[in-house]
Write a structure and sequence with these properties.
Layout (H helix, E strand, L loop, with lengths): L4 H19 L20 H7 L2 E17 L7 E14 H5 L4 E12 L2 H4 L20 E12 L4 E8 L21 H4 L12 E11 L2 E10 L19 E10 L2 E2 L4 E17 L8 E14 L10 E11 L6 E12 L9 E11 L9 E14 L2 E11 L9 E12 L1
Antiparallel strand pairs: 1-2, 1-17, 2-3, 3-4, 4-5, 5-6, 6-7, 7-8, 8-10, 9-10, 10-11, 11-12, 12-13, 13-14, 14-15, 15-16, 16-17
Length: 414
């Protein structure tokens, strides 16, 4: 018997929030066309933004339960969430500092993932709930200043932030980790730290033309930043080197309809020592990897440009000496406005493959993750995405079979 009580309760709470905000409340705090659930604070919020202070409070929740699998499981449901408290500063408005801005973001994660509660997914490489991970704790996720120079051709960012904010960036509408965010960092996570973990870093971007830019970054590698009690660590004690990514980004407009596209070509290498996974002898090597990603809108409604089909995908490649992974690929289709009565809803279908180095273990080959979601635009501050996921060759081993799961992902902007 499938245990879905916790999952059902989570779904019910989210749906009730969306319904009540449309039918019960009629005040500024719950206006359906407001970007904030708590409203505009009697106009103070918009006034502060005009003065250069942009406040945001966000909540992301993800529930998952196993529907069917090759193996039986008694503990097959889990819930995880993420809070974000951020302030953006327009330093031109505040300090008359032309072309400069700053950002502070404090985050907190809670909950558990279904992989920890079920033997079925104990060896799962990806995660059914992408929001889980990097320690369930408070963290200083962003603390940076950015300056634009040379008529905004040059963009310099310095402070503490995660690598995926700028490099190998990718959409994260899906709930499965293998279809959310830049894949190069997911499977190089022993040195490449995405948010909510931050590290001292610098990124320099140069705009070649309105459609193309190139960038390079230097990110401190300090394993202490992963510790739960180091969420606000500002020290460099424990630093072991750096991760240096390079990337070329092209953002063309396709044909006469000017359909938006984004294409990324990147490479990174690390200066810190890493173990050579190909030998039992003590031999240190340096991590490296490369990625290619794209996002292209291929159709749009002439009367409503936001309505249409977008295709996106990634390929990530890893150095076999420092990684047990060979490669990772995904591709996804997202259509916004499938129904005339729900123009802001969207439906997404994605497939991902994570390839392992079979020379290290002949029994392992690849893991397959598939997800289908429907995004309900309940209000301008609440989006609900129920989804169905399928995982095959769990852990890269055909003997582990497959599993079907139900998920629910929702975002609230307070």
């Amino acid at each position: 018997m499938i245990k879905i009580k916790k999952f059902t309760r989570s779904c019910s709470v989210v749906i009730l929030i969306g319904v009540s905000s449309n039918s019960i409340y009629a005040n500024d705090a719950f206006e359906t066309n407001s970007p904030w659930m708590l409203g505009d604070w009697s106009g103070k919020r918009s006034q502060l933004k005009e003065q250069g202070y942009d406040f945001s409070i966000s909540y992301l929740g993800e529930a998952a339960t196993i529907l069917d699998s090759k193996k039986e499981s008694k503990h097959d449901s889990a819930y995880a969430d993420h809070w974000g408290f951020a302030v953006g500063f327009d330093l031109n408005k505040i300090l008359n500092w032309d072309g400069a801005e700053a950002y502070i973001n404090i985050t907190q994660r809670n909950g558990n993932q279904v992989e920890h509660k079920s033997d079925v997914l104990a060896s799962h490489i990806s995660q059914v709930q992408e929001v889980y991970g990097r320690g369930q704790t408070w963290r200083l996720t962003d603390l940076w200043v950015k300056q634009k120079l040379l008529n905004e051709k040059l963009d310099i960012k310095i402070g503490r932030f995660g690598q995926s904010e700028d490099f190998s960036s990718f959409d994260c509408e899906f709930q499965n980790l293998a279809l959310c965010g830049g894949q190069i960092g997911h499977w190089s996570g022993d040195q490449w730290f995405n948010g909510p973990v931050s590290q001292w870093a610098a990124r320099v971007k140069y705009n070649i033309n309105p459609e193309m830019y190139t960038q390079i970054g230097v990110y401190e590698y300090n394993p202490r930043n992963l510790d739960r009690n180091k969420g606000f660590n500002l020290s460099t004690d424990g630093s072991q080197g750096a991760i240096i990514p390079l990337e070329l980004v092209w953002k063309p407009k396709l044909n006469s309809n000017e359909l938006d596209g984004e294409y990324r070509f990147g490479y990174y290498f690390g200066t810190a020592d890493a173990d050579n996974v190909q030998t039992t002898a003590i031999e240190n090597v340096h991590k490296s990897g490369a990625w290619v990603s794209f996002k292209q809108k291929v159709s749009q409604d002439s009367d409503n440009p936001s309505r249409g089909l977008t295709v996106m995908g990634q390929v990530a490649m890893y150095d076999n000496k420092s990684s047990i992974f060979n490669d990772a690929e995904n591709i996804a289709l997202v259509y916004k406005g499938l129904f005339d009565s729900r123009l802001q809803d969207e439906v997404g279908l994605g497939v991902s493959r994570i390839g392992l180095d079979s020379e290290l273990n002949p029994e392992l080959d690849h893991e397959l993750n598939v997800e289908l979601y429907y995004g309900i635009h309940a209000t301008d501050y609440l989006t609900i995405r129920p989804n169905i996921q399928y995982v095959d060759h769990i852990g890269g081993d055909v003997k582990n079979g497959d599993a079907w799961l139900a998920g629910l992902k929702f975002n609230i902007n307070f």
